[in-house]
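user: can you give me the structure for this one chain? tokens are fine.
assistant: on it. calling the predictor now.
[tool input]
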Amino acid sequence: MAGIKPFKAVYYNLDKIADLSKVVSPPYDVISAEERDFLHDLSPYNFTHIDLGRDMPNDDATHNKYTRANETFLNWLKEGIMIQDESPCIYFYKQDYKIMGQKYSRIGFISLMELEDEKGSRVYPHENTHAKAVDDRFKLCESLESDLSSIFVCYSDKYRKIEKIFTKHVATTEPVIDIEDNDHVHHQLWRLEHSGLIAEISATLADQHLFIADGHHRYKVALDYRAKQLSRMAGGSSGAEPFNYVMTYFTNMDSEDLKIFPMHRIVKKFSCSSGALGEFFRIDTIKKKDDLLVVLAQAGRNEHAFGLYTREGTKLLRLKNRLLIDEYVKEGSKEYKNLDAAILKSFLFDRMGVKSEDIIFTKDLDQVMGMVDANEAEAGFVMNPVKISQLKAVALNGERMPPKTTYFYPKVLSGLTVYKMD
């Protein structure tokens, strides 16, 4: 199995950084160009200066955003802006947040995860990766010889053994990081050095299937980086070399505090009559658009359902006949074919000729309705969230979900810990 291992994390020096909220950042892949510029200007020590640098006109093979990131990182270490832990630890990470007024607390931990050859590995991705994004992250990893951000992995712990260790032995101590982000998520990080407790945590994960929730590109980079390093070793690998591990955030998939947001579809060009929709869907009118999410969630308990928002009003679409799924969804296992995203694509988008370049994905319902109201899009399709059981089933089949199917919330902040592999 992919074992876990404590490590000496690099993190911000609280004696040098007065306000951590100005230097940590969201994961690089959810930051827009405008937000990157804002974060760069927020502090000269904001993590995006190394994690998401700017391209410059005169960049070449030897001077570019990757070499600048390495130079900046080394300067921060030299100046004591970031420091390395003295002892190997795992780092418990608690996030308190609200959704629609309801309070949640997601508990996890950051450690190293052993990398294995993809064939026979018990680590299961659920999304495809894109070569351009992998290449970008690989160059950054190779330049810094470091993992800057954790991949996000789910394990099963129905009896909350790991959470009980946290509650009894860790939560009563002072966190090393305690901040609130712009989304009002409260982030706290603790060190755990106790080898016996770390061994108990490792035993809980032993022989488990592990599922990647976020960070598929970073995971692919870690595998590629390991493969490249192994290819250079004439005498073979001991397995203990730093490149055999990747920095990973682990959390319990059996917890009710693990939340997956739906990814809605904004369609710029969409022309479809009620008659055409009615061929496969029951159509109900929703008088108040604010009621859409509640009605959609209720329908989604027993049916495949979607919200449709246009300037003509708000509709609920419910698939009439489940028996047609095998006929119209041409690819994948039974579990894949029963994903709402696969059904929407096959029954509507493919049949109506909706082009992929005319689809915008977002977790923000206000953006869906706002763009339609502003005549920037013709329709918005509102989705129910994917269940963790669906993700698990599709991943175990060795399949990948349709693009932009899941959005795990809250995100793991970047800049909390760095794994330096030299």
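assistant: here you go. The chain has two domains: 4-259+410-420, 264-382. The first strand starts at residue 4 and ends at 5.
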